Q: What sequence folds into this?
């Protein structure tokens, strides 16, 4: 790999891959196996135009998350068919 013209595209692809993995891990941590920070289960309330799933809890604090990686929800057997 003595060709410096290949270095930038390879580094850029690695950077994008790192961002995707980081985003997936953050969503998985926030999903918390289907439980909101208050201990209640997440309840789906909307689907955005790009397919992201909106979830909210029913406690007075109204926690809310948006999930882009649908297999995070499938991993815990949420019962929702996507």
A:
């Amino acid at each position: 790999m003595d060709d410096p013209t290949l270095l930038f595209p390879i580094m850029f692809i690695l950077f994008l891959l790192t961002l995707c993995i980081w985003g997936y891990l953050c969503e998985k941590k926030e999903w918390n196996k289907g439980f909101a920070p208050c201990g209640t289960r997440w309840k789906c309330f909307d689907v955005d135009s790009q397919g992201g799933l909106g979830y909210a809890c029913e406690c007075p604090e109204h926690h809310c998350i948006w999930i882009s990686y649908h297999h995070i929800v499938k991993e815990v057997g949420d019962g929702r068919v996507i």
In short: The two ends are 44 Å apart (CA to CA). The chain has a mean pLDDT of 83.
